[in-house]
Description:
Keywords: Disulfide bond, Extracellular matrix, Glycoprotein, Hyaluronic acid, Immunoglobulin domain, Repeat, Secreted. By secondary structure, this protein is an alpha+beta fold.
Amino acid sequence: GVVFPYSPRLGRYNLNFHEARRACAEQDAVVASFDQLYDAWRSGLDWCNAGWLSDGSVQYPITKPREPCGGKNTVPGVRNYGFWDKDKSRYDVFCFTSNFNGRFYYLIHPTKLTYDEAVAACQKDGAQIAKVGQIFAAWKLLGYDRCDAGWLADGSVRYPIARPRKRCSPSEAAVRTVGFPDKKHKLYGVYCFRAYK
């Protein structure tokens, strides 16, 4: 499976624990356990925003120590903020998915699309607009690589790069995030997911 950090359209540190669980479920995933995050860190996950884990703790993985992430002179590792109030405290979340029973693809379409057009285009193709968990699973588990930014179900725009190269993701394999653009902009393609029956 694959662990991925998630924050909603509102920006970082906006989810209490219950909202974090819901956010992962909406992205075809579950809240990651410490062991899953630790394995992801050992595989190179470096993320400077703290996120909820399934045990209710708040942690984040650092492979390259630097000033804003606990300090330059600290050792790499999974940083632990401890346990926080599940109702009142707000962080991002680390989600985990290994669920990949379908076809993830970039829809070839003659024009760039608004968000609503993107949703409709996938439906017309017999699929659904893909979720964030699905793009991470396709990237990590299948080596999916495409340098085209596309809409996803949560209103974010992302693209998966398995082979780093100039103009796409020069330094690392990653799922790149453009952000949460205005849904009326006709600037992007779309990633679709068709579940196997």
